[in-house]
Specification:
Elements (H helix, E strand, L loop, with lengths): L2 H7 L13 H28 L5 H12 L4 H18 L6 H23 L2 H4 L16 H28 L6 H12 L5 H18 L6 H20 L12 H13 L1
Helix pairs in contact: 2-5, 2-7, 3-4, 3-9, 4-8, 7-10, 8-9, 9-10
Amino acid sequence: MSGKDRIRKNPDSVQKQIPRRTIGQVAGISLRILVAQVVVTFGLVLIYFADFGVAPWDMLAIGIANHTPLQYGLALNVVGICVILTDVFMREKIGLSTIQDVFISGLLIDLWTFVLRKAGVAAWLHFDSGRAAFDAARLSDGSVFVLRIAAFVVGVLIFCYGQFLVQSRAMGAGPRDTMVLGFGRKFPKVPIGAITWSTLALVFLAGLLLGGPFGAGTIGAVFGMSLGQQLMCRIFHFEPRAVKHENILETIGSLKHSRAQ
């Protein structure tokens, strides 16, 4: 039975009983999720270093900041809260992965940014070349442009692979990915990549109407992340909508039940 058939018969996929877990087992699950989030954020930082334009969600936040008293960071937080509220409204699972994404992703992005700058990757792409050990000026402009394109493409693929790792844990997904899955369950016959494209395209359009900045990378992200997600689903024979996720209350409940035995 195909993934689409499973979704049509049961949008929540195969039902599963929440197992009893020890604290160590939950910690192990959390660690595996963390590893997946390390992959996701590495891809995001590579996309940022390519410097072809802000991501669609960032574009929207900047557009909101342009028309309100909110600063960019606060506007991005407001967007994130609205996304989570949308997830809850669509009755999607807010799981351990979702919680970790909210509290840890920003720290991981800062860490990867620091590491890649120290490693000289920033200099290769004409970021902070004066501070790095590697003299980026030795590269021609054409070579740097090719490196930036490579960083963008590799970053998108790594990001999409990280998405697969997170979602395959069945402990929820990032807030924005959860929203995409919610929309995907409403339209089970539409490929998940097309759902991702539609969502990012709407975010891009909203940001554009609000005057948010964009570049070739913004448009590239709309198409690249959609195609990348569909590619990962095809490679790993994975249908994210067919996963029965566990919410955070179920995870805590399994731990309490285990301790009571």
